[in-house]
Amino acid sequence: MDSKKTGLLELHFAVLLFGGTALFSKLIPLSALDITLLRCVVAATVLALIVKLSKQSIRLSATKDYLIAIGLGVIVSLHWVTYFASMQLSSVAIGMIAFFTYPVMTVLIEPIVTKTKLKLTDVISGIAVLIGVALLIPEASLGNDVTLGIAIGILSAALFTARNLLHKRYFSAYSGQQAMLYQTSVAVVFLAPWLNVELSSIEQNVWWLIILLGVVFTAAPHALFTSALRLLSAKTVGLVSCLQPFYGAVLALFLLGEDLALNTIVGGTLVVVTALFETQQSHRSNSVKKTA
């Protein structure tokens, strides 16, 4: 299996796990910041073990890379806090939809960063994804909390877009495990001063949810995701990741009892078809480069 196919496989599996992450904003009875901090403690511990057992170097190659890692870690921590806060203020569906404006941001911003020409098909794909994500929004009363939740979700999208593009440009030399070890560790240090829950007051079943979130839904998918970023363009990663709202809606149906409305099914289908189209386009582009 060539590197591009490996990257796409890693990406699709990571997105499946990411689809379940949003559910923890409702399953864990803590603030968005506390959830983020505790998940990062667990994830950083697991990632450190993975890096050690796989005999990868924990030390970075250059001093400037530590500064880059700190910057990425701060951006990631703010992204996660706003991601969970958005869903806690509104709903899982609305929070995820607001966040998933980021593929459109990526499609439009990446050519500026990489100094490449913006393709019409990318713009059309971005618009199709935006329409599909918008169709996922269920009927809701746009009260103050919902409006604030949408705004915070869009901020989360902007932070995630910045993280992906900066990682691709400045930190892609490191493995997914190394990169996320540093980013989750920085997040722990950055957020620790604002922890506002007594650890002894957290019930055992909540701790199990935190461990599940940290190991299966944070360490594993983010390592896969950052690994895929090394092999694929941020644009492809962003658009394929649009499978996440669809997976999230299906998981919410079974685990939270949220209904799948007709507009959710139609919007999810449009998002999935667009993501699959973008994946196919990536394959074709790579094939043409190899034969050229």
Description:
The chain has helices at 3-21, 24-27, 32-53, 63-89, 92-99, 102-114, 120-135, 144-170, 176-191, 204-231, 234-240, 243-255, 262-291. By secondary structure, it is mainly α. The longest helix is centred in the C-terminal third of the chain and has 30 residues, at 262-291. The protein is globular. The model has no long low-confidence stretch (mean pLDDT 84).
Keywords:
292 residues, mainly alpha, 13 helices
Largest sheet: none
Mean pLDDT: 84
Number of strands: 0
- State the distance separating the first and last CA atoms: 20 Å
Q: Outline, from the CA principal axes?
A: globular
Question: How many H/I helical runs?
Answer: 13
Query: Helix coverage percent of residues?
Result: over 70%
Series of secondary-structure elements, N-terminal to C-terminal: HHHHHHHHHHHHH
Beta-strand percentage range: under 5%
Radius of gyration: 18 Å
User: What structural class do helix, strand and pairing data support?
Assistant: mainly alpha
Uncertain regions spanning at least 5 consecutive residues: none
Compact summary:
This protein is an all-alpha fold.
Summarize the SSE layout with pairings.
Layout: H1 3-21, H2 24-27, H3 32-53, H4 63-89, H5 92-99, H6 102-114, H7 120-135, H8 144-170, H9 176-191, H10 204-231, H11 234-240, H12 243-255, H13 262-291
